[in-house]
Amino acid sequence: MSVLARKGFKILALCAILVLCVMQLTPTSEAAMAKGSKWVGNIIAGSVPSNFGTYWNQVTPENGTKWGSVEGSRDNMNWGNADTIYNYAKNSGIPFKFHTLVWGSQYPSWITSLSEADQKAEVLEWIQAAGKKYPKADFVDVVNEPLHSPAPFRNAIGGAGSTGWDWIVWSFEQARQAFPNSKLLINDYGIIGDTNAANNYVKIINILKGKGLIDGIGIQCHQFNMDTVSVTTMKNVLNILGATGLPVYVSELDITGADDTTQLNRYKEKFPVLYESPYVKGITLWGYQYKATWIDNTWLMNSSGGERSALTWLKEYLATAPSGPTNTPTNTAANTPTNKPTNTPTSTPTNTPKPTNTPVISNNTGLGDLNNDKVINMADVILLATKFNSVQGDGKFVSSYDLNNDGVINMSDVIIIASRFNNVINSSNTPTNTPTNTVTKAPTNTPVPTISGTALRDYVKAKGRLIGTEVTGVFYNNSDATYNNILKKEFSMVVCENEMKFDATEPSQNNFNYSKGDQLATFAQNNGMQMRGHCFVWHSQVPSWVSNGSWNRDSLLAVMNNHITKMMTHFKGKVKEWDVCNECIDDGNGNALRSSVWKNTIGTDFIDKAFQYARQADPDSLLFYNDYNIEDMSSKSNAAYNMIKSMKERGIPIDGVGFQSHFVNGMSASQLNAIDQNIKRYAAIGVKVSFTETDIRIKSPADTAAYQTQANNYKSLMQICLNNPNCTTFMMWGFTDKYSWIPGTFSGYDNALIYDKSYNPKPAYNALKEALMN
């Protein structure tokens, strides 16, 4: 036999051995759809479905490992369902993910009544118990939904702290000790469709990464994002997450389709973006059986147990789809990040190894001696097998095993070992396995928007937002030229203070007065402004003929319908968004609907009716519910959110929620964070948010420090709006303290706006510009 033939035989033999090693060391489900290095898994709710292994090769308990399910009563652990799923995963040789340790939902209700010291002790006890019970869990969702459902006991475990997210850091520190052999993940929703949310998410991730506490990124990918998200946005988000160097795991995928064709087309468009991404290492669907998913029409099996079209397609796609990522994502656009800089003179150092089809290896190097025992032999093959098919960025990937530096550990690296098999290494000639020069992935800079002027409206336009103000009575008689000049120079949206409310526009039944609304609408059109309409249905400023009338349900509904229809028809094409209903939620009484002529006569569905009438009158205007004290997280804000969420689910035509935002100076970081989280949960249900009546009142007399604090608060609010794509409008309830409503309403307070009484811009004005310039 020739030397070449013997060498070829040796390579084939080693490859065969490696395949056997990989089969033994890399769990896979032979029957499952996914055949490559990436899993496609699903959840198990109760007992294991008989056909689970036919389709899926990874498992996550739906509820069985959530704290609220396990420890419903203090110190009484129920692991039954979790045991069933964990044992199934281990017996089947597929990855098991523990979901989840710390979450602001589905936690034991008893913990909220404990002292902070006891809360911390109980959280620690829970994490340690979970780690002791499932030490071989492959993955652990340590903190779930930190951006949307932060744990109510978070102050007990670190609160914001120095990082802003110390409670998350603490949770990961405890999880690392309790689960030393597991990959630790963070998990949240609303990321895949929102690059701003992705960037905010990465801020937390980078804190954890800097401390060596995180092994991967979970993104939920639920239908409320997936049904409508563009492929471009998905790729941009994955690039943002992938730039961290951590693997991405799609954790809770579901896609709706009232009919099979709709669901199929969505899967065909969206699923390959995830599966073929070089950053995504696994995909877990959130249910698949008929009537066993949390959202209707996301199931992949019909009522008779047959496959829906999307599941049949998915099976066919996975049979031939590329299971491993390419080393460098295809650069399809000039602004798409890639693993290597392009078109840059210094992008490829001359001494950086380049992958080739046949690597040239110097026989006097130690390349291939993975265990550093000075000989290249079967021990190194076995080590390589443990990392087979891992890629750069994966927690399994080890750079020294990537012998040809192509970013993936595969058969090319086996061939290198085979070509040097039984070589004895001279330690004096052994190079380090890490190249001395590496190329750092440079993020693509976002183009700086063009600013056409120096006013607030110029800066905000570049951000794709509107900035506006309430217009007070002095405007209508043209008695203050400075007021009008600042109004048209600085703002891109206006709203009447009182002049379009029910009592002003219909003082007697069916006799309408549109004059002042028309005056402001004309001013807005002449100066390139948008206009808000405020407001139709309110318990206050209702004309006496309405509040004192003898109505029944039908007759008052007719009054409501007539008023909304006449107003919206008259101002059609002139008003961008309307406050259809204003301040309908009571401050007390369990945050039920407040008493009003509308609720008391029509019933609790008067809000639904108002929005339905408004949509019929003008299909093009955006329809808002507007209220105060619903901006951050509180019982009233929860009542507003639940009401609007229910409206969306029932098909009531609502587009947005207005946060009135009448604040007191000195807003805390926790309050500002809660506002941000509240906006994000509205984004998740497809609802816009507008700051509609913003002012920040200062206790009199005000000093320099108070004005600077106010400026910081205004800046933070604008930054929150800019960081959330569903926040489209930033309105203030006036712009000069000269005509503010605050002193007459809040005793001892004044100076709530961004210009003083002499029309001098205050620090708050400049702070808004600073936020818009960044």
Short description:
It contains 26 helices and 18 strands. With 774 residues, the protein is an alpha/beta fold.
Describe this structure as you would to a colleague:
By secondary structure, the chain is α/β, with parallel strands linked by helices. Helices cover 38% and strands 13% of the residues. The strands form 2 sheets. It has an 8-stranded parallel sheet with strand order 2-1-8-7-6-5-4-3. Helix 1 crosses helix 12 and helix 10 runs parallel beside helix 11. The longest helix is centred in the first third of the chain and has 23 residues. It is elongated and about 95 Å long.
Strand-helix topology:
Blueprint: H1 3-25, E1 39-44, H2 52-55, E2 59-61, H3 67-70, H4 80-92, E3 97-103, H5 116-133, E4 139-144, H6 166-178, E5 183-188, H7 195-210, E6 216-219, H8 223-226, H9 231-242, E7 248-253, H10 260-275, E8 280-285, H11 309-320, H12 378-386, H13 411-419, H14 456-462, E9 466-471, H15 481-490, E10 493-496, H16 502-505, H17 515-526, E11 530-538, H18 544-547, H19 553-570, E12 577-582, H20 597-602, H21 606-617, E13 622-627, H22 635-649, E14 656-659, E15 662-664, H23 669-684, E16 688-699, H24 704-722, E17 727-732, H25 742-745, E18 749-750, H26 763-773
Helix pairs in contact: 1-12, 1-13, 5-6, 7-9, 9-10, 10-11, 19-21, 23-24, 24-26
Query: Runs with pLDDT <50, length 5+?
Result: 1-7, 21-30, 324-364, 427-450
Strand content: 5-15%
Helix/strand structural class: alpha/beta
Describe the sheet with the most strands.
8 strands, parallel
Q: What is the first-to-last residue Cα distance?
A: 71 Å
Number of helices: 26
Shape: elongated
In which order are the strands of the major sheet placed?
Answer: 2-1-8-7-6-5-4-3
Mean pLDDT value: 85
- The value of Rg in angstroms is 31 Å
- Helix content estimate: 25-40%
Number of strands: 18
